[in-house]
């Protein structure tokens, strides 16, 4: 039985999604650092992690300690490629995987992450700005990279919540 929602967040988008999911399911929510101390090894959890260069941060550590039937990967892109995320992170095929658009907060980044993101967004902005036939999702991503902001919303949890309701017996887990 799923006991908790565990997350790793960098600029708060993933934490916001974890807390929204916790409100809807009634499951307790905690950061991975807290979960390592509070939960027994082998506990079944839902895991949410932020994405950097295709890696879901904290997932490998969480997977070594806990059973994870559902993963939410939170990144800037509105349509992340789930199969690539699954393969790069070693997520089993029987685990549900959902990609959620978070946000971009360059002012909350530091050191190497800030430098890497500045280089990445700079090249992506040029590439997207030059593209004549951008999709609405690409327009939104371009805006996000140029201006920062959050795309976290309860509506984006519709499909993961449906999965939770099916696997938690349909009711709030209290």
Descriptive overview:
There is one protein chain. The protein is of the alpha/beta class. The chain has 2 domains: 122 residues, Rossmann fold (3-Layer(aba) Sandwich); 42 residues. Helices cover 44% and strands 23% of the residues. It has 7 helices and 8 strands; from the N terminus they run βαβαββαβαββααβα. Strands 1, 2, 3, 4, 5 and 6 form a 6-stranded mixed β-sheet that branches. The protein has a two-stranded antiparallel ribbon with strand order 7-8. Strand 5, helix 4 and strand 6 form a beta-alpha-beta unit. Helix 5 packs across helix 6. The longest helix is centred in the C-terminal third of the chain and has 20 residues. 33% of the residues are buried. The C terminus is likely disordered.
